[in-house]
Design a protein that fits this description.
Shape: elongated
Radius of gyration: 24 Å
Strand content: 5-15%
Strand order of the largest sheet: 1-2-5
Distance between the termini: 55 Å
Number of strands: 5
Number of helices: 6
Helix content: 55-70%
């Protein structure tokens, strides 16, 4: 981390930024190519990343943790730049994400139920030619 003498602001190299936030350097470069974050201008041969980038990258990681795509995150970040804009589109996207996650949970519960059913019918002592799990997968309705 470097401290600017004129502004007393912390600046990071891309490697320092990546380490601070817990991502790979290539992840930051990918976000720059996708225009999720902007690429700062070079200063003395290196790019200097301000503390603002730390916040942006943390925001991206948190949004990904709750299931938002990079496309959605990019839109959210552009909306953050206009603090007086209505957040109804963000609320709507969040509601849609809740529905999507709910559907995934339902499907996972169905999968778990089937797997437990298969497992309960298998004692593990048969040959693979008579395996009730393999037979159950073959006969399962899609």
């Amino acid at each position: 981390m470097r401290i600017s003498k004129t502004q007393h602001e912390a600046f990071y190299t891309i490697g320092e930024l990546a380490e601070k936030v817990g991502v790979n350097v290539e992840t930051i470069r990918f976000y720059e190519r996708q225009k999720i974050i902007y690429q700062p201008k070079k200063d003395t041969g290196r790019r200097k990343y301000s503390a603002e980038f730390v916040e942006h990258l943390k925001f991206i990681k948190q949004a990904q943790k709750v299931g938002f795509s990079l496309t959605e995150i990019k839109e959210f970040m552009s909306l953050k730049l206009n603090p007086n804009k209505s957040c109804i589109s963000i609320k709507n996207k969040t509601s849609m994400k809740i529905d999507e996650v709910t559907d995934k949970i339902k499907n996972l519960q169905k999968m778990l139920k089937l797997l437990k059913k298969f497992e309960s019918k298998c004692d593990g002592n048969e040959t693979t030619g008579k395996c009730t799990i393999l037979d159950g997968l073959k006969e399962m309705e899609l």
